Structure formats: structure tokens, C-alpha cells
Amino acid sequence: MNERIFKSRRSERQTNMPTHTRPDTIRMARKFAFAVALTVSAVTLTACGANQDRLSTGALPDDYRTRHPIVIAEAEHTIDIPVASGDIRLPQGTRDVIQGFAADYASTSSGAIQILLPSGSSNAHAARAVRREIRSLFVAAGIPANRLFETSYQADSQGDAAPIRLSYHAITAKTEPCGNWPKDLVADTSQNRNYENFGCASQSNLAAQIANPADLIAPRKMSPIDAARRGQVIKDYRDIDE
């Protein structure tokens, strides 16, 4: 009796055991090994990609902001005023241009303004006639008359009407002149390097937009506190809490 019970229980255990065959076990082992290999390969490729990216970035030359830096230096500001041979006074558009030039001078410089008059050209007489009006525009803009210096330059008598040139020197934010092309861009591209003139125009445009070059050196001092505005802000904040 006991022997039959023992045999019955053993038969039950054998029936409930998994029925994996040897081929199934081999396939499962192969799938597991393949998954491990994929994981290791992914980690290896990621590391190689990161190293390759660092190597490629390190092979590039300096950043364009380093290659074409914005510097603060003295620069000449000039403007040419066209004058026809029959002019006896400046047109309104030209007067507006000179007033804008005077405003730029007042905000950036305190030196001398040169007024270069053409000599020997067909409009030389007309240029002499309107120079007084130019001086009066500068004086009206608050520029002392003792900062205005007149001189002449030799112009071509057979060419077009020579302009009156106005110029002054001031500290300005600028970059080096653009247009440097020492190499052929098509000849060598294997190293994936930026060309020499890359970024120069962007840096020049950014420098031209800087109204006060001293802002690149240090920040300006803080303005006094507006007590009325501060009180209004505190009142609005308290009203929100309520």
C-alpha cells in the first residue's frame, strides 16, 4: 500500500515538471548570449562615439570668437558729403545726415573734427560755400567751434564731384578687417576645419552694434533707487497675497 502511494506521488511530480527538451534549452542559452553581446556592443559603440566626437572637436581650430576677437581700439569715423558744383546750400537730407554724425561724435569722442574740403575740382567753389553751413550745424549740436579744423585735399579736376569729408577719431569696438582667404576652400576639406574668414562678418556686425565700448570692460554704476516704483511693486505684491 505504501509503495503504491509513493509511486503515485513520484508519478505526479514527474507530470508537473517542465517538459523542456535539450534543443529548447540550447535555443534559450543562445538568445541570452546574443542579448548580452548586443548590450556589450552598444556600450562599446557609445564609448567610441564619445571619444570620436572629442577627437573631432579637438581637431578643429580655435573658435571664430577667438580667431576674430572684438577689441577696443582707436578708429577713424568718416562720412563723405556730396556737393554739386551749383550748390549754394545743403539740402535737408544732407543736413540730417550731418546732424546724425554730430550726435554720434558727441556721444563717443571729445577730440577734433576735421573738415576736408576738395581743391582743384569742379565743385571746389561750391564746397567752400557750404562749409560755413556745416560748421553751424556742428555748433548748433553743442560742439565747440575750436574743435572744428578745416583742411583741403587735392581732387581730380576731370573726375566726378569730390565730396567734403568729415572725420574724427574715437575709441571703438571693432574686429580686424574681413576678407582673408589664404587657402582654397575646395582644395582641402578632409580635416573638416573652418575657413579663416569664418565668423568675421558676424563679429564685425556685433561690434558695430555696441553703443558704448566701455561696456565690454566693466559694467556701469547702478542708478539710484526709484523709491516710488519700489513702493508700488511692494504694494502690488501684498495685494496678490490678500
Q: Mind explaining what this structure looks like?
A:
By secondary structure, the protein is α+β, with helices and mostly antiparallel strands. It has 3 domains: 22-59; 64-68 and 178-216, no CATH class; 72-172, 2-Layer Sandwich (60s Ribosomal Protein L30, Chain: A), CATH 3.30.1330. The protein has helices spanning 2-16, 22-59, 64-67, 92-108, 124-140, 200-208, 227-241, and strands spanning 71-81, 113-119, 148-154, 164-174. It has a 4-stranded mixed beta sheet. It is flat, with a radius of gyration of 40 Å.
Write the layout of secondary structure elements.
Elements (H helix, E strand, L loop, with lengths): L1 H15 L5 H38 L4 H4 L3 E11 L10 H17 L4 E7 L4 H17 L7 E7 L9 E11 L25 H9 L18 H15 L1
Parallel strand pairs: 2-3
Antiparallel strand pairs: 1-4, 2-4
- CA-based shape: flat
- Listing every helix as H and every strand as E from the N terminus to the C terminus, the arrangement reads HHHEHEHEEHH
CATH architecture of the largest domain: 2-Layer Sandwich
Strand content: 5-15%
Helicity, as a percent range: 40-55%
Structural class: alpha+beta
- State the end-to-end distance: 89 Å
Uncertain residue ranges: 50-60
**CATH classification class of the largest domain:** Alpha Beta
| Total beta-strand segments | 4
Total helices: the number is 7
| Residue-averaged pLDDT | 81
CATH topology of the largest domain: 60s Ribosomal Protein L30, Chain: A
Largest sheet: 4 strands, mixed
Rg from alpha-carbon coordinates? 40 Å
The tally of structural domains comes to: 3
